[in-house]
Amino acid sequence: MGEAFLTMHHTIEVRRLSFAYPDGFQALRGVDLHVSPGEKVALVGPNGAGKSTLILHLNGILRGQGEVQVCGLPMEDENLGRIRASVGLVFQDPDDQLFSPSVREDVAFGPMYMGLTEDEVGRRVQRALTSVGMPESAARVPHHLSGGEKKRIAVATVLAMEPEILVLDEPTAGLDPRGRRGLIRLLAELPQTMLVSTHDLRMVQELFSRTVVLDQGQVVADGPTDGLMADAALLAAHGLEA
Question: How far is Cα 145 from Cα 1, in angstroms, rounded to an integer?
Fold first, then answer.
């Protein structure tokens, strides 16, 4: 499955993207961002930098001024269905994605919505649960899971859609050390193109060869992670600590 992902046009292209909320707050100010096929890119910055706002533009939840292309498709109404099937968005709080009586039903929800056969839905559920290291968890009640297990199942709900791109918002937030370590291993093993918004700079150094720093709605740095993490003045100027 991994080889198939890497032969397709699963890139993110953002050009001159600006967005203001109804109260007038300018969250994004001319953002440019490109993510190539197979890249795993970290998105960092202080609270209020615009990271979550940017992420929500990648599957059309928010629509600002500028250009957004995903998998070669412009962010236009007629493309929303294909784009949303291509971008697996994992929210910071897994309870925003887990709402069914069982893990199986949560993971099956997306494929069922796609109109797939019952057999194909079952195969996708099992593949997704196996991918996140929880193949025996289908019958469990989501709200009885640990924080780390919930995060894994939230990832499984999007993997079942077989997306080309994974976009995660603060994936390690609230996890204990064991859950955090397990999730980092999982993300390292997944083949998809990945954009991850995080405050966890230790994870950034472990997982991502490229980091983008966002502050006050603008990209203020974009380059190799090792170089950016070694620049104490840059980090301090934008509310980050090595």
Answer: 28
The structure tokens listed for 210 are 């490229």
CA distances from 99 to 107, 108, 141, 143, 166 (A): 10, 12, 10, 9, 21
8: exposed, middle or buried (C-beta count within 10 Å: 0-12, 13-18, 19+)? middle
User: Mutual orientation of helices 118-131 and 147-159 as an angle, nearest 10°?
Assistant: 140
Is the torsion defined by CA of 121, 122, 124, 128 positive or negative?
A: positive
Q: For the whole model, what pTM was predicted?
A: 0.90
Q: Evaluate whether 181 touches 189 at the Cβ level (below 8 Å).
A: no
Question: Which residues on neighbouring strands pair with residue 31, listed in sequence order?
Answer: 17
Nearest CA to 240 out of 207, 181, 200 is that of 200
Residue 53 in tokens? 């706002």
CA of residue 70 relative to chain centroid, distance: 13
pLDDT in tens, the chain (242 residues): 444 444 445 489 999 999 999 999 999 999 999 999 999 999 999 999 999 999 999 999 999 999 999 999 999 999 999 999 899 999 999 999 999 999 999 999 999 988 899 999 999 999 999 999 999 999 999 989 999 999 999 999 999 999 999 999 999 998 999 999 999 999 999 999 999 999 999 999 999 999 999 999 999 999 999 999 999 999 999 999 87
Q: Whose CA is closest to 14, among 60, 80, 45? A: 60
